[in-house]
Design brief:
2 strands; transmembrane helix; transmembrane; single chain; membrane; 298 residues; Rhomboid-like fold; mainly alpha; hydrolase
Length: 298
């Protein structure tokens, strides 16, 4: 006889393998509140918070009045757990609209270019990351040209970003997104043709995909859907010659590493480990950029 899927009591459409340690009701990442042992549902967390100042709960658990409910990664619970995802979506769409109305000028100024040799390409000979335009590593990740390109990336950002932001919290999710974007640009800068321009949020999206896999593994979810999705995206990445696969792989590696540090950090030193993970990843990205710049400038 097959086991019946267990779903979150507040979101019946979401399967979960985690239950509240106080009332034993199943809860999804959005509903999880980190506790000293396991996770609590929002109701139990609220009750523990209310009773922390004077009385005791039925299970004998007392919590300080200053204790706030937290996400699985230690982030603060927000009234809108998808705010950063919405802002990133809005920025990408706004930049795309400006690109459409402004021709190729913004692409020329913001795209990820390592170094442009003198040519009739329309780019000045001194343009590129190697010439000090490091901002291109980030600005390129908000640029799109074709409608299908931004549509695919923004749908992926919403599908992957919204639950990740709810599970990690706003600050941690934003750090994950930006580091994944930079990681994709850095690997593209290191391995791709220096005069090849690239753009798009795909590196950041692959970082979110890697982070989703880490989170699902941490929560003991069924890994098959995310593994299949990742495999399909990798096939598409290498099947088309005009896709900057370096950006995809770089974002995937960075997103996986950052997410692992966030959700597996020990509770006692969680903030320190998470910050240390982000700093370490950023230093690796910085070292990669410096190395490639030294190669190009000689």
């Amino acid at each position: 006889m097959e086991d019946q899927a267990v779903c979150c009591y507040r979101h019946p459409e979401r399967e979960t393998g985690v239950s509240c340690t106080r009332c034993d009701r199943p809860i999804c990442p959005e509903c999880m509140v980190s506790a000293s042992v396991g996770f609590h549902c929002p109701e139990c967390a609220g009750g523990a918070h209310a009773s922390g100042g004077g009385g005791s709960s039925g299970s004998g658990l007392r919590r300080p009045a200053s204790t706030q409910p937290r996400t699985i990664a230690g982030g603060s619970l927000a009234s809108d757990p998808r705010l950063i995802t919405k802002i990133l979506l809005a920025i990408n769409v706004l930049v795309w609209v400006v690109v459409l109305s402004n021709g190729n000028q913004m692409i020329n100024d913001w795209a990820m270019v390592g170094e442009w040799p003198p040519s009739d390409s329309g780019f000045a000979p001194v343009q590129g990351v190697a010439e000090g335009e490091w901002y291109r590593l980030l600005t390129a990740t908000f640029l799109h040209e074709e409608a299908f390109h931004i549509a695919f990336n923004m749908l992926s950002l919403w599908w992957l970003g919204a639950p990740l932001e709810a599970a990690l919290g706003r600050v941690r999710f934003l750090a994950l997104y930006l580091l994944s974007a930079l990681g994709g640009s850095a690997l593209s800068y290191l391995l791709a043709d220096a005069s090849q321009a690239s753009l798009g949020a795909s590196g950041a999206i692959f970082g979110l995909l890697g982070a989703t896999a880490v989170l699902m593994r941490r929560l003991n979810y069924d890994m098959r859907p995310v593994v299949i999705l990742l495999a399909l995206n990798l096939v598409f990445t290498f099947a088309w010659s005009d896709i900057a696969w370096q950006a995809h792989i770089g974002g995937l590696i960075v997103g996986t590493a950052v997410a692992y540090g966030m959700v597996h950090a020990p509770r006692e030193r969680r903030d320190l480990v998470q910050a240390g993970t982000c700093v370490a990843v950023f230093l690796v990205i910085l070292g990669t950029v410096l190395l490639r710049t030294a190669q190009l400038t000689g």
